[in-house]
Amino acid sequence: MNDALRLGGRALGFALVAFLLLPFVALAVTLSDGDFERAVDRGLWDALWLSLGSTTLAVGLLALTGTPLAWWLARREGWWARRIEGLVRLPAVTPPAVAGVALLAAFGRGGLFGDTLAEAGVSIPFTLSAVVLAQIFVAAPFFVLPVADAFREVDDELLWTARSLGSGPTGVFFRVVLPMSAPTFVGGLAMAWARALGEFGATLVFAGNLPGATQTLPVAIYAAMEGDLGPARVMALVLLAFALFLFAALRTSRVERVLGKRT
Asked: For residues 134 and 199, is the Cβ–Cβ distance under 8 A?
């Protein structure tokens, strides 16, 4: 009986693995001649470079703003810290279309800050700025929350020792806290970058689908699907290749040695 249950459990597990693998295999084996050329004609390279540029900017801004927030969350307890951590977590469970509508409600024409921005001559929706803001919005939890957890794991005695040796708060953070949290810090950036790279719903609603201006690669895939699926499959494979490259790069032993792999 136990053997039958064990074999049945393994069979169900392998069935799930096969289900997860099958769509990726199908992407590759269903390509046909001319799909790549048609994908290029549909704006593959423009969408790719826009995606890479916007996500790099988004992740850079997220690191600049999210790191001090993660440190604050790690060093604080109480009602306010829990509420702010919950707020940071909210975009991770918000449907992307809802996120796009919310961003429009905040920064669009007639939105909460729309009139103020218009008076200053600033228009955010359907621009590259909207793309970057949408990516930051959806990716923030994937960076801030793991990094805050990593900061919490740093032993307070090490911080006090560094302070007793003459390091100020800034020196303690950059010389002790950040190096000890480096694997999680870089992993959080990678997860945020991957989430931003794959963002579709909020970007489409808030930034639109303007080729060469706001059309990221996921949005280009959606646009290509309105016609021949071949170009869409090529674009999807390109997007998948970048995600796999990032994953493989972070798993290399050289990167782990540089970051000081945590055990």
From this structure: yes
With CA atoms as reference, report the closest residue to 74 among 155, 171, 9.
Answer: 155
Structure-token pair, residue 139: 């990716």
State the total domains in the chain.
Answer: 2
**Exposure of 102 by Cβ count < 10 A (0-12 exposed, 13-18 middle, 19+ buried)?**
middle
Residue 141: its pLDDT value, please? 95
CA 205 to chain centre: 18
- Name, in order, each residue with C-beta under 8 angstroms of 123's C-beta and a sequence gap of 6 or more: 109, 117
Shared-domain flag, residues 48 and 159: yes
pTM recorded for the entire structure: 0.87
Is-contact 210 126, C-beta < 8 A? yes
Do residues 167 and 72 both lie within one domain? yes
| pLDDT at residue number 183 | 85
Domain identity same for 124 and 23 = no
Tokens representing residue 153 in the block: 């794991």
Which residues of the chain register pLDDT less than 70?
1-2, 250-263
